[in-house]
Amino acid sequence: MTDKTVFRKKITLILLIGSILLGCFSCYSNKKDDNKEGSLQVDLPQLKVKGELTAVTLYSSTSYFQYKMQPMGYEYDLIRDFAHSQGLKLNIKVAQNISKLSEMLLNGEADVVAYPLPVTNTLRQEVIFCGREELSTQVLVQRSNKGDTLVKDVTQLIGKTVYVKHGTKYHERLTNLNVELGGGIHIADIEKDTVTSEDLIEMVAKGEIPFTVSDDKLARLNKTYYNNINISLKISFLQRSSWAVSKNSPLLAEAINAWATDKASDYNFKAITKRYFELSKMPDVVSLSEVKKGQISAYDPLFKKYAKKVDLDWRLVASISYQESHFNPHSVSWAGAEGLMGIMPNTARGLGVASHELKDPEIGIKTGIECFRRFRQGFSEITDEKEKIKFTLAAYNAGIGHVYDAQRLAIKYGKDPNKWEGNVDEFIRKKSDPFYYNDSVCKHGYLRGSETYNYVNDVLFRFDYYKKKTQS
Q1: Which residues, if any, are the signal sequence (predicted)?
Q2: pLDDT tens across 373-394, in order?
Q3: pTM
């Protein structure tokens, strides 16, 4: 056999082996792709075997947030109700923005988008829209106090000044409306990063600015905080939106649709809607309960008894109690906080106290003081006792995680994390702005920060008043 013949046989053998290996690799690769595709095909039967539903949503005042470290929100309550109806444990994931919602769904990171996605033909090719369909629009927010003249038609905005945050969809819509009307609307751009859309609504309510623009859903929620605003004038076309699941989950979509039209779930839907968009959440104007002959309330002996055990001024406890319940032991807030000290039922259970027991004045006060003591321990690095009280009050109101977030933001932006005024309190307020609550240093998302900021100030103001009127 010649060397040339041997060489040809070797080449043939090498090519044959290469072809076999390539074929094997191709089969393995296709098998991997098939497995990957199969892993995305998780429908309701597979979820029931797993016992868990993963939903993705956004942090916001209308979808999902933590209040006193309890998960809450309109979309959250609805998806939790659906998961419960299917006997599934709910796992929540949070996307940074609306475009990430569908991306996470299509990547198999979530089973359902529990947030109203705009219904578009492009997205319809990729997902199944399901559940209750919402029709949303943008509205003009204006004050409706006695004597105010309401704008009832968009043409009446000509010559008026409307305040919106620069670079937002509200600014874009107002600019387009101005073009449609041939000009004449004075658009005041708010470029300060500390001002949010909800801040602008509050400024309208307080008469600091005349008009702003908001989504109707956000406007409805904020009307429960400010009953003197009018949100009836629509300034944009209606936008359809709803939840969505993957094209690989038709049975899950069917179950969500069935739940959305079921009579039992309809009752829960109405209750949830009422909780967020109808029940008043108006904070009290800083009020001072009358102090007669050194007595703040009928519960002073209990305040003194339990405050002394943890080295607290009983008058501070009284101020917290008045802020939470106006000394009404049967008080229940819109969020579900109960009793004289405004304790969330889940928090109480963690301390071995049943929800109904919170209405007992002594148990309620004792539990509230124990909560305060534990929060205070969470700020051991703050040596100034007056400062520590401010941080603890903020934690009592919002949950300690939000205060830790604000401290981390303070560090990031060169502020003192152990000082409240002009430092951490600024970032508590900024936690209602997506730019800040979506920051990687934040672990607990959206907070209606102005509410916590005001809570600390109001409790301390009343505390000083009680100290002047009573003896320690």
Answers
A1: none
A2: 999 999 999 999 999 999 999 9
A3: 0.86
Whole-angstrom distance, CA of residue 169 vs CA of residue 138 = 9
Retrieve residue 460's tokens.
Answer: 């301390």
| Judgement on whether residues 109 and 91 belong to the same structural domain of the protein | yes
pLDDT digits (tens, 9 = 90+) for 143-165: 998 888 999 999 999 999 999 99
- H or E element at residue 312: none
The amino acid at 352: G
Asked whether the beta carbons of 169 and 213 are under 8 A apart, the reply is no
Question: Are both 316 and 366 inside the same structural domain?
Answer: yes
Q: How far apart are the first and last CA of the chain?
A: 114
Q: Which helix (H) or strand (E) holds 430?
A: helix 425-430
* Distance between CA atoms of residues 221 and 235, nearest Å: 18
From 75, 198, 202, 324, the catalytic residue:
324
Domain ranges, residue 103: 44-126+246-277
Tokens of 341: 């000290």
Q: Are residues 168 and 101 in the same domain?
A: no
H or E element at residue 459: helix 449-469
How far is residue 130's CA from residue 255's CA, in Å, rounded to a whole number?
A: 9
Which are the contacts of 93, defined by CB distance < 8 A and separation ≥ 6? 54, 55, 56, 57, 104, 109, 110
pLDDT by residue (tens digit) across 102-142?
Answer: 999 999 999 999 999 999 999 999 999 999 999 999 999 99
Tokens, residue 369: 């003081």
Other C-beta atoms lying within 10 Å of the C-beta of residue 12? 10
Report yes or no on 149 lying in a domain: yes
The reply to whether 324 belongs to the active site is yes
93, β-bridge pairs: 56
Number of domains in the chain: 4
With residues binned 3-state (H G I as helix, E B as strand, rest as coil), the percentages for the chain, rounded to 5, are 50, 15, 30
Pairing of strands 89-95, 52-58: parallel
**Of the candidates 58, 53, 105, the residue with the CA atom closest to the CA atom of residue 82:** 53
SS3 call for 57 = strand
